Every structure is written in structure tokens, then in C-alpha cells.
């Protein structure tokens, strides 16, 4: 089964991602063929209206949404460590989702579901207000060149949309190793009236790095290159 190309229902002129090669390894293809029909869906093929997550997961539980799961290095481990939540990962890169399914299989994860497509479409069209316990955006593409900053994922419209989908008391957790992007994230999130900084009284407002977040190769490289990793934790008002 070879993934097919899908076009977004709502065309956006500026997106935060680029299309990469879709070639998969033998192991990734096997994991895709085995698990995607049950654990994965295409955002662009979802029927109109809210996604029925309790039916898909087979239970009612708090929903954690991770935007941009990459190759699943962190996602699979976090889902395995939190069996009490319904863990939802959205990603545009097909081999990354296949690798996530492979990692989840090896860890015996049962509380993970995956969506391929644009997170903005998912949030806007298929996740109702007050439906998410946590949203995580870990190490999004920094688009380091100034002329490309408009492509960065964390912008006011997205943060406002996320805030509306968080349940009262829900958390938005971000992390980046690019200093200017961290400052941008802080400014954008601080300006959203529905959110408040959990660590606003700390120097800079930065959250401490959580011990439970696995250290990925990207974070390890940041430390090697002397870049500080910044975490931000914002809560929706109850």
C-alpha cells in the first residue's frame, strides 16, 4: 500500500512545512501497511465536523495533541509513558509517521493515533472547542533565515486557535533550541488573552526542562553546539 498525495481542502499561501521525499524503508513500509489502516487517518479525507475521538480510541480519556511528531522519537516514548491519555499525533511527513508506528509497535503502545496533514486544518475543522487537555509543539522547524520567519509555525492565529481548543485549565507546551524563535514564541503566547504563563514569575518566564521529555538527536545536537533549549508552558484560564 503506497500513500497517495493529498491536497489541502483549504489552501494556505504560507505554510510552516515543506514536502519531503516519501520513500520509506522496508520496516517503515511494513509498519505503515500493518498499522495505518487502524491507527492513522488523512486530515484531508476526514468527514466534515468533529473527529469522533472516543470511538477511534475506544474510550473516553484526556486528549494530548502533538503537532509535528517528526520521526516519532519522542512521541512514541511519551505515549508509552502516559497510557491514561489518548495521544494524537499530526504530521505531514509520511515516512515520519511510518517510523512513529514502527517505534510504537516496538514499545507496545496502544493509546496512539496518527493523522497525516496540516495541523491547522485539523484544529480548525475537526477538533471542537474545549476538547484538548494538552497541546505539544516540540522543536518545530526554526526557519532561521529572517525572510523565512513568516513560515514559522508558532504565530498568533495558530496560538489563538489552539487556545480555543484547549479545555479550561489545559496546557500548551512548546520547546525550541533557537533563541530568537523562543523569544517569538514567548511574545506570541504572552499576547494571547486566553493563556497565562505558568512560569511567568521565573526569570524570562521560561519553564524548567521537564525530566520526562526524552532527549532527541536534535536536542543533543543543540547542546553540542552550545544552543540553550527553552521550554514554554502556558495554561488556558479555567
Automatic annotation (TrEMBL):
GO cellular component annotations of the record: tRNA methyltransferase complex
Record pathway: tRNA modification; N(7)-methylguanine-tRNA biosynthesis
Residues involved in substrate binding: 145, 177, 216-219
Binding site for S-adenosyl-L-methionine: 66, 91, 118, 141
Keyword Mitochondrion in record: no
A Pfam family of this chain: Methyltransf_4
Keywords recorded for this protein, A-Z: Methyltransferase, S-adenosyl-L-methionine, Transferase, tRNA processing
SUPFAM superfamilies attached to this UniProt entry: S-adenosyl-L-methionine-dependent methyltransferases
Enzyme Commission number: 2.1.1.33
Transmembrane annotation, as ranges: none
Domain of life: Bacteria
Reactions the enzyme catalyzes: guanosine(46) in tRNA + S-adenosyl-L-methionine = N(7)-methylguanosine(46) in tRNA + S-adenosyl-L-homocysteine
Known function: Catalyzes the formation of N(7)-methylguanine at position 46 (m7G46) in tRNA.
HAMAP family linked: tRNA_methyltr_TrmB
Protein name, UniProt field: tRNA (guanine-N(7)-)-methyltransferase
Gene name of the encoded protein: trmB
Amino acid at each position: 500500500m503506497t500513500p497517495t498525495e493529498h491536497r489541502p481542502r483549504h489552501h494556505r499561501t504560507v505554510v510552516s512545512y515543506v514536502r519531503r521525499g516519501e520513500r520509506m524503508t522496508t520496516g517503515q513500509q511494513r509498519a505503515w501497511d500493518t498499522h495505518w489502516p487502524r491507527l492513522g487517518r488523512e486530515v484531508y479525507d476526514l468527514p466534515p465536523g468533529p473527529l469522533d475521538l472516543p470511538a477511534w480510541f475506544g474510550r473516553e480519556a484526556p486528549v494530548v495533541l502533538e503537532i509535528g511528531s517528526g520521526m516519532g522519537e519522542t512521541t512514541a516514548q511519551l505515549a508509552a509513558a502516559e497510557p491514561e491519555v489518548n495521544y494524537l499525533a499530526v504530521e505531514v511527513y509520511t515516512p515520519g509517521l511510518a517510523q512513529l508506528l514502527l517505534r510504537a509497535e516496538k514499545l507496545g503502545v496502544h493509546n496512539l493515533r496518527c493523522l497525516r496533514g496540516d495541523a491547522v486544518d485539523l484544529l480548525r475543522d475537526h477538533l471542537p472547542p474545549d476538547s484538548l487537555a494538552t497541546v505539544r509543539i516540540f522543536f518545530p522547524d526554526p526557519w532561521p533565515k529572517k525572510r523565512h520567519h513568516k513560515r514559522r509555525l508558532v504565530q498568533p492565529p495558530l496560538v489563538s486557535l489552539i487556545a480555543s481548543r484547549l479545555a479550561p485549565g489545559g496546557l500548551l507546551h512548546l520547546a525550541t533550541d533557537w533563541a530568537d524563535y523562543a523569544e517569538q514564541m514567548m511574545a506570541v503566547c504572552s499576547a494571547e488573552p486566553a493563556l497565562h504563563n505558568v512560569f511567568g514569575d521565573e526569570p524570562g518566564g521560561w519553564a524548567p526542562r521537564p525530566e520526562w521529555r526524552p532527549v532527541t538527536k536534535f536536542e543533543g545536537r543543540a547542546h553540542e553546539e552550545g544552543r540553550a533549549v527553552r521550554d514554554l508552558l502556558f495554561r488556558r484560564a479555567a
